[in-house]
Amino acid sequence: MASNAQGEQAAKPQIQPCRYKTGKTLGAGSYSVVKECVHIDTGRFYAAKVINKRMMQGREHMVRNEIVVLKRVSMGHQNILTLVDYFETMNNLYLVTDLALGGELFDRICRKGSYYESDAADLIRATLSAVAYLHDHGIVHRDLKPENLLFRTPEDNADLLIADFGLSRIMDEEAFHVLTTTCGTPGYMAPEIFKKTGHGKPVDVWAIGVITYFLLCGYTPFDRDSNLEEMQAILIADYSFTPLEYWRSVSLSAREFIKRCLTIDPQQRMTAHEALSHPFVNDEIREREGGREQGGDLLPGIKKNFNARRTLHAAIDTIMAINKLREGGGGGVDGGGDECGSEEGGEWE
């Protein structure tokens, strides 16, 4: 981790002509938007995450120091979205990454003709490999969920990529709690986050357990009618492999993997490296136990469950977003007029 004045100086950008033109919005979060951008000199397309500096509450230097590490780490693993550039304006911080054109994880699964447990295992193994690499370099993601798992290209053999890695750790506990509970479901968060007893790398393994459950049935293990009920279920790990019709084709090995990830005590939870050696994601063990085509096609049930819950949660998210805008009086991350030019490059302020 870059530290003190040397690290901050290395990370702090210099005023220079803007090298990018921004285009369409690709996604939006509670304190940032992601936009397509093009490098003016090379014509190469990238994605730019635009972060509202007001949300950093005077901790911009922590962001800069974190980025020094993330830029180096992101170039060292094929399943991590590469951070290629960063700069800041008066109101916003810009993180420029490779443009992942293959779409989000679950949307891509739903477009497939068939989908088996072994396909889910391959996806989890790739994610675990990247998480283990981040943990080895002292980085905790803290916000692993299907929306942050993207494919590099539309090809069938494209790399799965972790996006938005590492930045959430700069938020203090209260701010992180507010962000996650007011802007969507807390369903991927580990019990120790809610308990405020201190947390670290094990929270990412818990999230992988939730993602694995989701990838095998199309709904999350702690899905409830409200965030409070969901949090209460998480605190006691209140979940089950039901209804049986959606779990009949899922192996005992997969269920045991999920249980070892969704262990309440973080000290007893598997590490990322231990999870990589579990039979569910270990190719050699899985082949010995009967090959890759165990179980039936999971896709019909997954599509049915996912679409039903997406419709419900989209309605809830819309209401929450409207309320948030009313409370905040509008304003978004691009407020202040200092964004990189959408037509021609301007000056960074």
From TrEMBL:
Keywords: ATP-binding, Kinase, Nucleotide-binding, Serine/threonine-protein kinase, Transferase. Residues 327-349 are annotated as: Disordered. Residues 336-349 have a biased composition (Acidic residues). Pfam families: Pkinase. ATP binds at K49. InterPro entries: Kinase-like_dom_sf, Prot_kinase_dom, Protein_kinase_ATP_BS, Ser/Thr_kinase_AS. Residues 20-281 form the Protein kinase domain. Belongs to the protein kinase superfamily. This is Protein kinase domain-containing protein.
